[in-house]
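Form 12-C: Joint structure prediction
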Amino acid sequence: MTIHSAIQSNVTKTYIIMAAFVAFVVLVAYVLGNALGYGNSFMWFAVLFSVVSSFVSYYWGDSLILAISQARPADRRRDFDFYTVAENLAIAAGLPKPRLYVIDDTAMNAFATGRDPKHAVVVATTGILSKLERRELEGVIAHELSHIKNFDTRLMAVVAVLVGTVAYLADIFLRTLWWGGGHRNRDDDRGLGQVMLLVGVVLALISPIIATLIQLATSRNREYLADASGSKLTRYPEGLARALEKLGKDKEVLEAATNATAHLYITNPFKGKNFGAWFAGLFNTHPPVADRIKRLRAM
Amino acid sequence: MNALWIVGGLVALVIVYFWSLYNGLVSLKTQIEEAWSQIDIQLKRRADLIPNLVNTVKGYAKHEKGVFSEVTKARSALISAKKLESKAEANDMLTAALGRLFAVAENYPQLKANENFVHLQKELSDTEDKVAYSRQYYNSIVNDYNIKIRTFPNTLFNEMLGFLEKEFFAANEEERKAVKVNFE
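Section 2 - Result
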C-alpha cells in the first residue's frame, strides 16, 4: 500500500465508520426501545445522539482522548528530548509540529491522535521518555508522525470515541435490564415482548464485540506501514527496533488506557494482564512486536 | 464541423497540460523555498549558540586559544555565507571546529560538569539534528522537483516556463558520523 492510497482509504473508511455507527446505534435503539416498551421515541433520540456524537468524535475526538488519558502538555525544558525530537521529525516529514502531551505513568507507551496534520497530537508516557535513548525515541516519534501523515489518526480517533460510546450504551442497557427498568405491560403480548427482550440482550452482548472488530479492521496493518515510513524519516530502522525491544520487555499495564483507546498506542497497553486484555487478546489490535522488529532489521 | 471539434479538443488538452504542469511546478518550487528557509533558520540558530558556548569553555580553558579562534572564524564564515554551496561548506567547517572544541573540553572535568555547558551541548546537538533533518526534507523535495522537470514531455517545456533544475544541499557523510560519536 502506498502512502497516498493509505490516506485515501483512511479518509473513506472514516466516513463509512461514522455512517455505520449511526446505523448501528439507531438499529440497537429501535430494538431496545421496543424490547423495553418505550416504542420509537428511543430511536429518534438515538438518531440525534449518534449524529451528534459522530460530529463530536470527528472534531473533538483528540481532546476527549487526551482527557480520558489524563495527559498534561509537554514542556521544552522538562521533556527536552521528547519536545525536540518531535520538532525535528516534523521538519523532516514536512508537517507542522504536533501538540505534545505527557501521561505521568511509568508504563512505556505512546500514541498519536487528531483529525489531520494541523490538529495532530502526540502523547508519550513518562515511562517511555525516561527509558528510551534519543535515537530510540526518534524511532517511536517517527512512527507516530507517520500515523498522522497517513491520516490513521483521524480514523483511529473517530473509532476510539464511537467504540467507547457503543460500550457505554451497552453498559447502560445491561444495568437498566438488571434493575428491571422499563414500563412494559407485562400481561399483554408476552410472546413478542420476550422475543424483543432476547434480541435486545443479544445485541447488548455483541455490540462491544462488533466495536472491537471495527477496531481490529482499522489498526493492524497500519502498524507495519507506520514502522516502514517512520524508518524512512529517521533513516535508522535500528532505533525503532531497539525501542520496540524495550517496549516488548516492559510488563507494566498502562492505567490510563481503556478498551476504546487501546488501539491507539504503539504497543498493546494491557500486556495480557487484566480484564481488558482478555478482549484485546481475543482480537489483537497490534501485530506481534517480535515480527515488527524482524521486519525493521531486514530493511 | 467534426474537424473543428477535434481541433478544439486538442487545444483544450494542451491548455490543461500546461496549466497543471505550471501549477505543479510552482507549488513544488514554493515548498523548496520554504524548506530552504527552514535550513537557514536552523543554521542561524546553530551560529547563535556558538558565542555562549565559547564563553563557557573559555571560563575553564583560557589558554586553548587556537580552538576558539577556529570556531569563531568558522562561525562568521557561516553567517556571511550567502549561497547554498558556501553555506554547506561553512557549516562543515564549523562542525569540524566544534569537534575539536569538544575534544578539548574532554580534558576539563569541571567544565564537563558545568550545567550551562551540558545544556549548550544538548542544544547544539539538537540543532545539528535539526539541520540534518531540514536538509533531508529539502533534498527530498528538490528530488521530486528535478524528477518532474527531467521527465518527458515536461523536459521540453520547463526552460521555456522558467523552471531550472535545483541543486541538492550536500550532506557530508563524515560530518554525520562525527556528530554521532561526539554527542551521543
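Section 3 - Comments
Chain A has one domain: 3-297. The two ends of chain A are 17 Å apart (CA to CA).
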